[in-house]
Write a structure and sequence with these properties.
Blueprint: H1 8-14, H2 39-46, E1 53-56, E2 60-64, E3 75-79, E4 83-91, E5 100-105, E6 111-115, H3 116-119, E7 123-125, H4 128-135, H5 139-162, H6 176-198, H7 200-208, H8 219-245, H9 248-273, H10 278-294
Antiparallel strand pairs: 1-4, 1-7, 2-3, 4-5, 5-6
Helix pairs in contact: 5-9, 6-7, 6-8, 6-9, 6-10, 8-9, 9-10
Length: 296
Amino acid sequence: MMKKTLPFFLLLVVCLSSCYHQSGTSSDAWDLSDRQIDSISFSSTHHYSQNYNFVVDADSLVLSCQSPDELPFDSVVLYDGDCVVVADIMKMPADTVDTIWVKLARDQATQGWIQESRMLPNVEPDDPISHFISTFSDTHLLVFLALLVLVGGAYSVIFLRRHHAYIVHFRDIGSFYPSLLAVLVALSATLYASIQLFAPESWRHFYYHPTLNPLGLPFHLSLFLCSVWAIIVVAIATVDDTVHRLPYTDAFLYLCGLAAVCAVNYVVFSISTLYYVGYPLLIVYVVWAFRRLLSP
């Protein structure tokens, strides 16, 4: 699963999401001893099993109406946006391309078999959080967003400094929250990239089974979710404190500059951590940020 990085401002969308699973279509009866895969062991390695819900994320997806051990006389087509359920999973050792075949069902009349290697790139879990992750995993989109954030953030900071506007770290408003928010974003980006670097399978499992509850998750995932919740809480406190300290126009400019700094922090630390540079950079940034905050 490719590495994924998310821009800071899009993290707020996650708090509006919820995870759910619908009941699936009943599957056909198969000989468990020869062809059926044990759903528990399969789920632990492939992260999904029977009755799991997907959404088609391709223009079309062709399924074979016959099972893999029969000649494909007929086929059905699924289209972008179709909701499907995993009705059955079969292992075909004789298949030299992919030994795992999956039966997808949109309804009783529209169901068929497809190789897992052809299915996975064209579907995504039927969950808003998973959809969010999938959308911002596209490499071209990530490169475009990274360039946009860096250029836009740099121009925002230069503009605000030239106009002697208030800006976090440089001409701050004397509040602890903005600096804390910027540091939390950098920390969250470092944690996120670390998960991609050292525990990619745990993130893959989270992609298939997302949750906003940090309890019951592995420590690294729990720590990351806690950092996301902390960002949301501190962001609300930052907005409230800023509008009480500055006139509305100045407060708006300050918050725009803060958003630019946070966005740049997320891009820089999420990318640099993948090359191990982010860890010493985070220490330097935290020390510098709080020294700027405490300096008269």
